[in-house]
Amino acid sequence: MQLIDSIVAQAEEMAALRRDIHAHPELCFEELRTAEVVAQKLMQWGIPIHRGLGKTGLVGVVHGRDGGACGRAIGLRADMDALPMQEHNHFAHASRYPGKMHACGHDGHTAMLLAAAQHLAQHRDFDGTVYLIFQPAEEGGGGAREMVREGLFTLFPMEAVFGMHNWPGMPAGTMAISPGPVMASSNEFKITIRGKGGHAAMPHTGIDPVPVACQMVQAFQTIISRNKKPVDAGVISVTMIHTGEATNVVPDVCELQGTVRTFSVEVLDMIERRMRQVAEHTCAAHEASCTFEFERNYPPTINAAAEAAFARTVMAAIVGEDKVLVQEPTMGAEDFAFMLQAKPGAYCFIANGDGQHRDIDHGGGPCTLHNPSYDFNDGLIPLGATYWVRLAQQWLAQSR
Q: Where is the Peptidase M20 dimerisation domain (predicted)?
């Protein structure tokens, strides 16, 4: 593995920084302490910063030996926020804030980009500019969307933007990237079915919304199996059904909520249209009515082919061609998709291992994302930082 010596030399310092961030998790758009830690480090290394983009986000600007005069630029992005969940780990750097936890590794993502920033600022052995994007609110807040809306790519004109996420279960020392869709769109629906309540012993006197809901849930699955092309990916999951107050009362209302995931907007358009039709017509068949709400949260994350191929070449030079894996698409969602809608780029996975890296007194559960026993693998910091540095150097060295 071809790691950068100066980054390896600072590995313990960066691991300590990562653990400090882990112990002080902050939720979306509340990342004040985390952003201040990042800002202080960047300024310490002589990197100018722009604060407050996307509320709590910030961007560091590292010019190369030419002072950025050539006009070339690349963007590297890390997310900073934590999740609203209770940590089960009891090691020294466990969360100090009840109900908040870095269970997705954003603490590690921040540390990897900081380690790269330190090297880039100290050496500046490139021409052009590297923009260091520290993004808030990935976990449901759409921080990437807000940064783009507030002028990220206007204030910091870059040719391409790249992101990275740790991936538990992949063997440590490997990375993965592929062109095309790599993460799904995230969408939510809420359907409120209105019938006519009454006595449960006399159901004929009312309109029971419960069997309407049951038929609706079953019918939604035919959209996946009979309306969608078999080769296209799509998921409809009804995850909540709320109705009723007493066992002997037919309720007036039944509410369904859930999520839809797809890898393309075209499939998403079809699913939303068919779900609305199924909901409205199923209700009409039972003399009930409904309101149908569908919210599109994050679009699919789609890697540009040229940028994904370039990133793969950089990875192979660091870890070896056999350690660069095919990036298996996942139905999880990622708001880096908003940046990829605006700029070409690619989003890769860096292996977090199987959990053996965790300190004693971990929670005992699996080391998987969004699990209360998760912890980021600090051994990844030199690899992730080396990748960021080599990616920036080689991108900016290309002839245009």
A: 188-284
**Residue listed under structure tokens 């998921």:** 235
305: pLDDT strictly greater than 90: yes
Q: What is the mean pLDDT of residues 253-274?
A: 97
Architecture of domain 186-298: 2-Layer Sandwich (3.30)
Of 173, 171, 241, nearest to 212 (Cα)?
241
Task: Work out the burial of residue 230: count CB atoms within 10 Å of its CB; fewer than 13 is exposed, 13-18 middle, 19 or more buried.
Answer: exposed
CATH number of 5-184+300-397: 3.40.630.10
Residue spans of alpha helices (H) in the chain: 5-9, 11-23, 32-44, 106-123, 143-149, 152-155, 209-222, 265-285, 305-319, 336-342, 380-397
Dist. CA 241–CA 36, nearest whole Å: 42
Sequence ranges of the binding site? 104, 106, 139, 165, 370
Residue type at 304 in one-letter notation: A
Distance from C-alpha of 316 to C-alpha of 325, rounded to nearest angstrom: 10
pTM, 2 dp: 0.94
CB neighbourhood size of 11 (10 A): 17
The answer to whether the CB of 143 falls within 8 A of the CB of 137 is yes
Q: Which pairing describes strands 175-176 and 324-325: parallel, antiparallel, or unpaired?
A: parallel
Angle in degrees, 0-180, between the axes of helices 106-123 and 32-44, rounded to the nearest 10: 20
Alpha-carbon dihedral angle through residues 190, 192, 193, 197, given to the nearest 10 degrees: 140
Report CA-CA distances (Å) from 272 to 16, 25, 297, 334: 46, 36, 13, 20
C-alpha–C-alpha distance, residues 259 and 282, integer Å? 20
**Where in the sequence of the chain do the CATH 3.30.70.360 domains occur?**
186-298
Binding site residue list for Mn(2+)? 104, 106, 139, 165, 370
Which helix or strand (DSSP H or E) is residue 99 part of? Answer: none
CA 279 to chain centre: 30
Tens of pLDDT along 41-94?
999 999 999 999 999 999 999 999 999 999 999 999 999 999 999 999 999 999
Q: Return residue ranges of the chain for CATH 3.40.630.10.
A: 5-184+300-397
The per-residue pLDDT for range 384-395, each reduced to its tens digit, is: 999 999 999 999
